Amino acid sequence: MNILILGSGGREHSLAWAVKQNPKCDRLIVAPGNAGIAQLAECADIDILDGATVVTFCEENAVDFVIVGPEAPLAAGVADACRAAGLLTFGPSAAAARLEASKAFTKEICDACAAPTAAYARFTEASPARAYIAEKGAPIVVKADGLAAGKGVIVAMTEAEAIAAIDDMFAGEFGAAGAEVVIEDFMTGEEASFFILTDGTAALPIGTAQDHKRVGDGDTGPNTGGMGAYSPAPVLTEALQQQAMDRIVLPTIREMARRGTPYQGVLYAGLMIENGEARLVEYNCRFGDPETQVLMMRLGAQALDLMLACAKGALAQAQVNWAEDHALTVVMAANGYPGTYARGSQIRRLDTLPEDSRHMVFHAGTAERDGGIVAAGGRVLNVTARGTTLAEAREAAYGLVDRIDWPGGFCRRDIGWRAL
Ligand code: GLY
After folding, report:
1. Which of 97, 119, 375, 390 could form a cystine bridge with 74, CB 3.0-4.6 A?
2. Has residue 212 got a pLDDT over 90?
């Protein structure tokens, strides 16, 4: 079959890598892709936020299956447009993608199905929001309601920080995404990511992971899009996964179906674990980045069968075959990230590294220049390895990192510390 993946990050490179291994895949196109993806698939430079453009491209290229990677096209209704055109599509409708695209909507769903999450209030004006913060005190969490490229959640450790976040949001820092604000209680505990495929009725957990959001070793410095991840996440025991399914995920899936907006695709539940209880931090309507890189390394070719089963509404008959192993990915970022950074620095020796079912460098912000690879973004490479233990996976991943010649980049040296 001919398959189109939408997206251009490390997540999409790892999805493409897994899909390409499956004999069902004849032709693989990624739009727009990146320099690493171009080594294993065709790349197409189309506007992936425009449903009509994507549908026309699929018709012209006899695409049989569309996999939507990032949240923005999902929220823009690209999966709806593809399905309306009769294309087999993996990814939720715009209505269902509100689980990520509106924080207030997610809270409303949690209320409706009694899913455990932090207490909250929602505001469309600054002055009652400020009064609420004064009443509740800090630490407290301020969230822009809409999509804000991962920057719309402020964990404020002081009241002043929370008030500044409110003022910035209502002053338009995130545009329409900040027109409504959710303020919620600060939750303590350990955070982990839980990934579930659902076809709207059946649900199949496909793995756990933990990422490292801060830029510096020891979880210090500013937040980033993620500096590394590993799977599985030991904190999400089988019992806690079952609890999260029973109390949070399945009630959400039923509530979405009950409202006439069934959720089809991957549901990424960010969970806070404390004292044997899992509470929902947030939902994402897509695979995590960089968590997908470690999930795909462990799932391999079966990832395509699972996504197909999901899109066809046949998930009840599907199952995951796990290798009892671990995967870990180290993000290499351009010097200066998450602040200002230069583009165009040369990355050497990537072609000397092994690329197999246990070692892979997934590209994020890269470009090809004069036959070589250059940095073209903040997060640039995801250096990923598998091992029979997490320690072995980590050693293998850092072994690869140390063979890359890139003075313009850096990475954390402690990915996996919590689990190890
Ligand atoms: N790793 C966090 C995210 O994908 O949102």
Report:
1. 97
2. yes
282 lines ligand 1 (CB under 6 A): no
288 lines ligand 1 (CB under 6 A): yes
Encode pLDDT of 175-184 as tens digits. Answer: 999 999 999 9
Ligand 1 atom nearest the C-alpha of 11 is 4
For the Cβ of 211 lying below 6 angstroms from any atom of ligand 1, the answer is: yes
- Token digits of residue 57: 């491209």
Look up the pTM and report it.
0.97
Mean per-residue pLDDT of the chain:
97
| Alpha carbon of 148 to ligand 1 centroid (Å) | 13
List the chain domain ranges.
2-92, 125-179, 190-317, 326-410
Percent of the chain exceeding pLDDT 70 equals 100
Nearest to 203 by CA among 159, 168, 251: 251
Task: Quickly name the fold that domain 2-92 has.
Answer: Rossmann fold (3.40.50)
69 lines ligand 1 (CB under 6 A): no
Residues 6 or more apart whose Cβ sits within 8 Å of residue 366: 34, 35, 36, 347, 373, 374, 375, 376, 377, 380, 381
Point out the ligand 1 atom lying closest to the alpha carbon of residue 286: 4
In this predicted structure, what is the pLDDT of residue 270? Answer: 98
Distance 284 CA to ligand 1 centre (A): 8
* Distance (Å, whole) CA 47 – CA 286: 19
The Cβ-side half-sphere exposure at 63, using a 13 Å CA radius, reads: 29
What is the domain class of 190-317 according to CATH? Answer: alpha beta
The CATH number of the structural domain formed by 326-410 is 3.90.600.10
Closest CA to ligand 1's atom 5? 288
Distance 56 CA to ligand 1 centre (A): 30
pLDDT at 218: 94
